[in-house]
Specification:
- It is elongated, with a radius of gyration of 30 Å.
- Helix 2 runs antiparallel to helix 8.
- It is built from nine helices and 14 strands.
- It is 40% helix and 21% strand.
């Protein structure tokens, strides 16, 4: 006996066989569906790491283990990278002497996440080409012009301890125009507050002791000002006030790298946000729909009815209780 069309449809729905086929189609769609261009808030930065020898100073720690400033900065950047939205772009460069050297142009963080992490891990002091540094007039000046050449609204993140070597005399300002219109960013200070010995390394990157006072240029006594203590350029601490002053002169922000969260918050600052269409994955929607269908197909109808009934019962019980509590509160007031 041939069933009517309506009865066949009802029987198919009751047996829920169609759900398996529909779930299969949705899973295939989840695997092959391309990303869609969707309006998103994104960021673009060229991040410069100071790799001079003072950045090897181990005056920071993670879980009680001592860590150099450069290693701490890289670990913080690794965590901050995860928190940037897809469509954002990050690139790496390094600083020594009086210039920055771009290593990798800004790349989209989600599609190139592994490549960004691998290249970040490779940055170390063995890459430096000079043992002296001009941070403001050299490194920041150069980083700003690299960002200008990259275009696309790229901002600057310059991570350093702020120690100029040889030191800049108090009161001496930059001799060149550092800032450029339309280029902003951050000076990120990293390091401890107490002066710590600076490790000395040879041309092969091997540690051979610490710098001595007689081996580095000190601030002359006449230039220190009344009441100033002895010069200790063979030791290093975070020169945060100096970096904040430089940042203020060039229109940058300054933030101390007190934790990875501080760096992540700086990178997500709304002042550097850009609103543009970025590739956005929608595969999870099809995958979730397939999961719901499979659960509905293989769960027993009585079990589903029991779950729904218990949920409705809980809602009904909660609403009167909340109303009673509200009434009691009103009576007390």
């Amino acid at each position: 006996m041939k069933l009517p069309a309506l009865s066949r449809i009802r029987l198919l729905l009751q047996r829920r066989h169609w759900a398996v086929c529909a779930a299969f189609v949705l899973l295939v769609a989840a695997l092959v569906s391309p990303s869609v261009q969707w309006p998103r808030t994104t960021f673009s930065y060229m991040v410069t790491f100071d790799i001079t020898q003072s950045m090897d100073t181990e005056d920071l720690s993670v879980s009680g283990a001592p860590m150099s400033r450069l290693a701490y900065a890289k670990a913080a950047m690794r965590e901050a990278l995860v928190q940037l939205p897809c469509g954002s772009r990050i690139g790496w460069s390094i600083f020594a002497g009086q210039s920055t050297l771009p290593l990798m142009p800004p790349l989209e963080v989600c599609a190139n996440f592994d490549a960004l992490l691998a290249s970040l891990d490779g940055i170390d002091g063995g890459m430096r080409w000079a043992n002296w540094s001009r941070i403001a007039e050299g490194g920041v000046y150069s980083a700003i012009r690299v960002a200008r050449d990259l275009g696309h609204g790229t901002a600057v993140v310059f991570i350093t301890d702020g120690q100029e070597a040889p030191p800049i005399l108090p009161g001496n300002g930059p001799a060149v125009q550092i800032a450029l219109p339309g280029i902003g960013g951050w000076l990120i200070g990293v390091g401890g507050d107490a002066p710590a010995p600076i490790p000395k390394t040879d041309e092969h990157g091997n540690r051979i002791g610490y710098w001595l006072a007689s081996e580095v240029v000190q601030i002359p006594l006449a230039a220190r000002g009344p009441g100033a203590g002895a010069s200790h350029e063979e030791r290093s601490e975070l020169r945060g006030q100096y970096l904040a002053d430089v940042a203020g002169r060039i229109g940058f922000g300054y933030r101390r790298l007190s934790s990875p969260a501080a760096l992540a918050a700086a990178l997500r600052d709304s002042r550097f946000a850009r609103h543009e269409r970025a590739p956005t994955s929608v595969r999870w929607i099809a995958a979730l729909a397939a999961l719901v269908l499979l659960v509905w197909r293989y769960a027993r109808l009585r079990d589903l009815q029991a779950v729904v009934a218990s949920a409705l019962r809980a809602i009904r019980e909660r609403i009167p209780a909340s109303r009673v509590a509200a009434n009691r509160h009103g009576e007390r007031s």
